[in-house]
Amino acid sequence: MDKNTPVTIFWFRRDLRITDNAGLYHALKSGNPVLPLFIFDKEILGELEDEDDARVTFIYNKIEDLKSALNTHHSDLEVVYDTPEYAFTKLIKDHKIAAVYTNHDYEPYAAARDGAVKQLLAKHNIEFKTFKDQVIFERAEVVKDDGKPYTVFTPYKNKWHQKLKPFYLKAYPNEQYLKNLYLFKATALPSLTTMGFTKSDAKFPETGYEKFIADYAEKRDFPAIKGTSHIGLHLRFGTVSIRQCATDAHKAHEKTWLNELIWREFYMMVLHHFPKTMDNAFKPDYDNIKWINNEQQFKAWCDGETGYPLVDAGMRELNTTGYMHNRVRMVVACFLSKDLLIDWRWGERYFARKLLDYEMASNVGGWQWAAGSGTDAAPYFRIFNPESQLKKFDPKLEYVKKWVPEYADLSKYPKPIVDHAFARDRCLKAFKTALS
Questions:
Q1: Is 265 assigned a ligand-binding role in the annotation?
Q2: Does the annotation flag 260 for ligand binding?
Q3: Domain 7-133 has what CATH class?
């Protein structure tokens, strides 16, 4: 196709699919051929600590799939390894760009990045258009009657359900417009090695979440049961459509599974309205807590060597697979921030490094919930007892035996690094002092 032909660029980011993709749909209807683009952002990749970070391999695999899918329509995916500013500077030289379309991203870095790209494009009279795609409701779509954001989940959830109409679940019919793709052959993919990474041999969950919806409510709290869909990774990178997920849950009349999707949107809304919460307590008084931050105990927690089998099983599952059962996430987070009095931000950053399904909003929200410093209405003296949690949710020790096999021989298993009763009292005093 002639290089002087005006093109619309569609910038794939957290939406790695051709079907039911809002921004791609609007790009395909823009009147210009659509040139698909993905940027391996040096700014983001440069922050990752591990050469074999499994998320990079997952994205790389999905980019290869996306290229193949576009090839069947005689198009391709231009893949650039650099900063977005450099990528667009070069694209502006190589193509006559009418507009750049993409989908919203809500994290603070993404907002700053998009602002810079918008400014760059504006200098060349190129439109930058973004669309809602990874949530059903965003930003200020579900707010109080006075227009202020909700800061407690339950009333937000109730308003979310009230607002939901079939319109919001309707899929975008992208397939009808794929003939409008730009016909070209892209340059070769940059290799993982070029970008400073090695291929991970991690196993990634499938997208087949439907079979988990019906009995999710009764199975979701038991880590030894395969009762959860592990869909978080696919939601994180947009390899499934949130509209399809919500539609399937709605059809099944399964509100518990749907409510987990709503929690995700709630935390995204909170991060949008209160961006400081990415590294400051939502309730500012909680930043006065005198954390102990014992580095040896933090290492024991990271390594799954605390002497509390449910905590240790969770951490070993995380370190081995990049996943941790949600019930166990709450237990290990509470143990770190309350039993050990280690700053929740230490745990949040460790999860950010290890979790395949890491999303800043949900991770920060979950950690602040556990520490008592977040939006949750429960008082700070909610402190999980890791032993009673074990008896309740892994009574046969099936989960523990899988991840902590030496627990069967207590002579080989470490003694608890802290006494829970002592730690609970110490935590209550520290929190009370900080909040008084």
A1: yes
A2: yes
A3: alpha beta
- CB–CB of 51/274 below 8 Å? no
Of 54, 34, 35, 117, whose CA–CA distance to 83 is shortest? 117
393: annotated binding-site residue? Answer: no
Per-residue tokens: 425 = 């009292």
Does the annotation place 398 within a ligand binding site? no
Instruction: Tell me the pLDDT tens digit for each residue of 22-56.
Output: 999 999 999 999 999 999 999 999 999 999 999 99
Q: pTM higher than 0.90, yes or no?
A: yes
What is the tens place of the pLDDT at every residue in 321-357? Answer: 999 999 999 999 999 999 999 999 999 999 999 999 9
C-beta of residue 363 within 8 angstroms of C-beta of residue 332: no
Check whether 264 is labelled as a binding-site residue: yes
pLDDT digits (tens, 9 = 90+) for 109-168: 999 999 999 999 999 999 999 999 999 999 999 999 999 999 999 999 999 999 999 999
Which tokens hold the place of 193? 């090695």
Do residues 210 and 230 lie in contact, with contact meaning Cβ atoms separated by under 8 Å? no
**Three-state DSSP class for residue 89:** helix
Q: 262 a known binding residue?
A: yes
Q: Which fold has domain 278-435?
A: DNA Cyclobutane Dipyrimidine Photolyase, subunit A; domain 3 (1.10.579)
Is 261 annotated to bind ligand?
yes
Please check the confidence at residue 177 and state whether its pLDDT lies above 80: yes
Q: Considering only CA atoms, which of 153, 418, 234, 141 is closest in space to residue 244?
A: 234
Q: In what order do the strands lie in the sheet with 127-131?
A: 78-82, 34-41, 7-12, 97-103, 127-131
Question: How many residues are there in the chain?
Answer: 436
Residues carrying CATH 1.10.579.10, the chain: 278-435
**Ligand-binding site membership of 156 (annotated):** no
- Tokens describing residue 21: 């993709």
Residues of the chain with CATH 3.40.50.620: 7-133
SS3 state of residue 98? strand
Q: What is the DSSP string of 244-300?
A: HHHHHHHHTT-HHHHHHHHHHHHHHHHHHH-GGGGTS-SSGGGGG------HHHHHH
